[in-house]
Amino acid sequence: MRRPRAASAPLVVFALAALAHLTALLAGSAVATVTKPALMPLLAAHVLARGGPLPLAGALLLGCGGDTLLLIGGDTPFLLGMAFFAAGHVCYLLLCARHGTPGGRRTYGLGGVYAVAWLGTVALLWPDLEPGLRVPVALYSLLLTVMALGASRVRLRTGAGGLLFLASDTLIASGAADWPQPPVPQFWIMLGYLPAQLLLVDGLLRAAPRGPAGAEPQTRAYGAVRTAP
């Protein structure tokens, strides 16, 4: 029987920092501003500690750039933040294409659902977005939707991560359109975003062969991992 792996130190620190960040958001504390830029680098350090693929760590560091820019406020940082996240989604897409299963009837059906959801969301947001944000938001949300669909082909947890990412970023877009928001909207955004990133990381780490960073040699078949003697 395979022994469960102990959590890496960066993952433990990430969990504590995430809890501190969410608590600070609810409390309206400035600690939230300090902890937010540190979250994705901690998760990237976990990826590297596990010998995970460099594009996965890169996606998280790009997410850190997006997180930091969104703290500034204003249209230009918002657009730059979207560009950082979009580059991260490209990294995720490449990894999902490498480790995902071929598309089948389930993928096509889910793709149809995601396509309708994307079209509906863009159509509803479009009139209320500032003109300079309309096309970038539509294109970014399309890329995010494609990433979420690709993530569903890897593992159940990566698919869930992609779906949570969609929900979190849709709430951000609704705020940009000045739609009514729930109390403490940043709390709800991060409550979706943090598990989304963690699920994507965990699923892709399980799907990808490990690198040389202290990880055991492995072979992979249909997502099953066998530890070499």
What do you see in this structure?
- With 229 residues, the chain is mainly α.
- It is built from eight helices and two strands, in the order H-H-H-H-H-H-H-H-E-E.
- The chain starts with 8 loop residues before the first helix and ends with a strand.
Beta-strand content estimate: under 5%
**What characterizes the major β-sheet?**
2 strands, antiparallel
Q: How far is the N terminus from the C terminus?
A: 13 Å
In total, how many beta strands?
2
Read across the widest sheet, the strand sequence of neighbours is 1-2
| CA-atom Rg in angstroms | 18 Å
| Poorly predicted runs | 212-229
Structural class: mainly alpha
What sort of overall outline do the alpha carbons produce when their principal axes are compared? globular
